[in-house]
Amino acid sequence: MEIPIMDGITAKTITSERIRTRVLFSGPEEGIPVLFLHGNVSSATWWEETLLALPAGYRGIAPDQRGFGNADPAIKINATHGMNDLAEDAFALLDHLGYAQVHVVGNSLGGMVIWRMLMQDSARLLSVTLADPGSPYGFGATRDAAGTPTTPDYAGSGGGLTNPELVRRILEGDMSTESPFSPRAALRTLLVKPPFIAPREDELVQSMLSTHIGEQDVPGDAVQSPNWPHMAPGVWGATNATSPKYVGEIANIIECNPKPPILWVRGSHDLVVSDTAASDPGFLGRAGLLPGWPGEEAYPPQPMLAQTRTVLESYASAGGSYNEIVIDDAGHVPFIEKPAAFNAVFHPHIK
């Protein structure tokens, strides 16, 4: 499926040393580079308006990441390396394009890729913008701001808890709203703050439908667990790679050198990444929506925002800097819902 692109966007197929994929570009080729990394169950399409709104003299670059969109479907994510595959793909793309340093922007899963890029080679990042990023400790199975696991096998994280109805409807190419678990319904109720309808909603849904599906993609594989909710992370695909089991050493974020300035922008009504996230097993259990919940002491909701803030405060104490901005009446993708408010803080940051 070829997703239409906006006027002013150029799509190219790029083959780096690691992967062949579609990359969207905006702005002058000689401009200051800004790399955009999309979230889970989406693609570079989600960044098009933001690419076009970049200030004069900036070059926007947005790849379809491994496992999504028009990325080579034969190239899989080894989840046991956490976000390493995606971070190395990003660095390889920059090498191919000839950029030693870039500004980098990531949403959700893309934000988690940036945590790994900071761990591995922060010198290549002129600035960091995190738009509703996943917690540096991953998604699920942690109980406090320090990222302490709820169980030894990280049950409640990874691909095993992905809604199978959503996966089925992606496979079927469902563009409807007939089910609350269709991609379009998920976009309208979970990813944005109702009643917002994205101007290019059809293209966003087509982007969701371009997600690579399977036991080595989304949702990935899973392992039965004796611990509630009885699914532990597998070893393949993006969703398993978000497990706190595979996040790596958080101290490497805090201690990285040099320390690019970090802008953390989030929607006030984000239901995906919050201290009471809609798909977090601890929150669902507490709400009575996931049977067998062992209680608050054993498995509380993951404090995702508190985890991010704690890491960024440590980053600042170690010589870095960060700024947290909350955009009112926005959900998980404020750059789509409130583009003027997003760009009002994003553009000065990269300047």
What is the fold's blueprint, element by element?
Elements: E1 10-15, E2 20-26, E3 32-37, H1 48-52, E4 58-63, H2 84-97, E5 102-108, H3 109-121, E6 125-133, H4 164-171, H5 183-191, H6 201-209, E7 213-214, E8 218-219, E9 222-224, E10 231-233, H7 238-241, H8 251-254, E11 262-267, H9 281-286, H10 304-317, E12 322-327, H11 334-337, H12 339-350
Parallel strand pairs: 3-4, 3-5, 5-6, 6-11, 7-8, 11-12
Antiparallel strand pairs: 1-2, 2-4, 9-10
Structure overview:
With 351 residues, this protein is of the alpha/beta class. It has one domain (10-350): Rossmann fold, CATH 3.40.50.1820. Helix content is 29%, strand content 18%. The protein is built from 12 helices and 12 strands. It has helices spanning 48-52, 84-97, 109-121, 164-171, 183-191, 201-209, 238-241, 251-254, 281-286, 304-317, 334-337, 339-350, and strands spanning 10-15, 20-26, 32-37, 58-63, 102-108, 125-133, 213-214, 218-219, 222-224, 231-233, 262-267, 322-327. The strands form 3 sheets. Strands 1-2-4-3-5-6-11-12 form an 8-stranded mixed β-sheet, sandwiched between helices. A two-stranded parallel sheet has the order 7-8. A two-stranded antiparallel sheet has the order 9-10. The longest helix has 14 residues, at 84-97. The protein is globular and about 55 Å long. 55% of the residues are buried. The model has no long low-confidence stretch (mean pLDDT 97).
